[in-house]
Amino acid sequence: MLVLNNTNAQPLTFFLTGIPGLRAAQVWISIPFCLLYVIALSGNSMILFVVFREQNLHEPMYYFLSMLSATDLSLSLCTLSTTLGVFWFEAREITLSACIAQMFFLHGFTFMESGVLLAMAFDRFVAICNPLRYTTILTNARITQIGVSMLIRNVAVMLPVVLFVKRLSFCSAVVLSHSYCYHVDLIQLSCTDNRINSILGLFALFSTTGFDCPCILLSYVLIIRSVLSIASSEGRQKAFNTCISHISAVAIFYIPLVSLSLVHRYGHSAPPFVHTIMANVFLLIPPVLNPIIYSVKTKQIRKAIVKALIQKQQ
């Protein structure tokens, strides 16, 4: 069996996969995917534009929303070139270095989104449970510190993952099962012992999303307890309404993540194209739906977008 590694003179090349069994229909299937990418890129760009432009949106809640939009935008751009390249031009080849780079940013921005959702949960917790100290707790400096700490955390957990992937040797069968590079997918093609890689991957997952999810749940337990102590029903409803957009964002991030993991683990009887389509769609759900949810449910964002569109037409 031919074994390939990073020390070979010729760069190691992998082959991305489009939609197994539906190769003839890939061009047509790519149309809804292309539409999803357009919605994700334009929607998140618009959120960033209005938050940057409108002075009345220079508040902690909207700073965190702009972080979420920047993360979603980056997450979409990570897979855009390879996914549409495979669907439209059969551009399936990717070098190991490019694959590792895509994997680093793909997982890094996924973990970043989880961290931003935790920061937004903290924002809602302070706004509802300690409103009088909201502006003194969430200062611009502290928001910057939160953003930088999330970046440092992601780089710290992803660097060992990347370095140990570069040490692996691969067999001649180097066909990936997605249209982008995915850590589990990549290490499964290795001919050498990949247990350390699996452990590092699990550590990266549990130290980011595995830590963030329980903290988000805890914050909402405390928020619900605080809201239920409000005397008036109108006050309780108003407090809950400020959390609806964030709860929706948490749901559309974690539910697809868990669902995809369950499908990969237990859905062996499903056709291969089902796994591939679900993997691509689930990756696009948060970047597509987050700007829509915040535009619809957040009055200030909706007004700012309408204002920007009207001024553009004039």
Automatic annotation (TrEMBL):
This is Olfactory receptor. It comes from Nyctereutes procyonoides (Raccoon dog). GO terms for molecular function: G protein-coupled receptor activity; olfactory receptor activity. Belongs to the G-protein coupled receptor 1 family. It comes from the Eukaryota. Putative odorant or sperm cell receptor. It is found in: Cell membrane; Membrane. Residues 43-294 form the G-protein coupled receptors family 1 profile domain. The lineage of its organism: Eukaryota, Metazoa, Chordata, Craniata, Vertebrata.
